[in-house]
Amino acid sequence: xxxxxxVRVVAAKVTVTCxxxxxxxxxxxxATTLLDDQAxxxxxxxxxxxxxxxxxxxxxxxxxxxxxxxxxxxxxxAGVEQEAWxxxxxxxxxxxxxxxAVAAVPGTDPDRISYQAAVDTAQDLVITxxxxxxxxxxxxxxIGRAVLGRLNPPRRPRVCPRRVxxxxxxxxxxxPGKPTTxxxxxxxxxxxxxxxxxxxxxxxxAKPNPAGP
Length: 213
Hints:
Strand order of the largest sheet: 2-1-4-3
Number of strands: 4
Mean pLDDT: 78
Order of helices and strands: EEHHHHHEE
Shape: globular
Structural class: alpha+beta
Helix content: 25-40%
C-alpha cells in the first residue's frame, strides 16, 4: 500500500547494450496499479521502463513549443494560475487531436508524431478561422492530417551522457558503467526477479546540500 493505494511492485534487472558491445544497467523496482499479473506480465511492464521520462516532453512542449521560451506575462498568483491552466488545456487539446490522428491510421508509431506540426496547423486555423469545427466523420481533421503528413523518422535509440549544470547536483558524477559518449542502443532487456530471489542493493542516500534547502 502506498498512500492508501494498493500497488504491485515488480523487481527486475535492466540491461542496455550499445552498438560497440558496451553494456550497463542495474536493478530496479517498479510500482504499478496494474495488479493483474496475467493481463500485464512483469516482463511487458518492465519493457516500458525506458520510456518513464517521456512525461518531461510535456514540460518541454509547454515552455519551448507553445511559449517559444517566453515567460508567463502575469504578475500575480491568480494570473499565473490562469495562464498555467490555459496552457495545460491547450496542450491537452492538441494531444487529443494527435491521438485521434494516430487512431485513424492503425500501425502508426506515436513517437513519430510531430507536436510542432500540430501547433503550426492550429495557429493557421485560428488565424484564418477555417474548419473551426470538423464533421463527425472526420476524426483526424486538419491538425491530424498535418501531423500524419509530417511524421518524424523512426526513433533511434541512443544513450547520451548526463549534462549537469549545477555543481551542487547529486548527479554531478558520472554513473558507474554508463558510457561517457553518445552511443547507439542495440537492445534493452529486462529480467523480472521473483520476490523470493530479489536481491537489490539499496541506493546510497543523497548527501545533504551544503547550500541549504
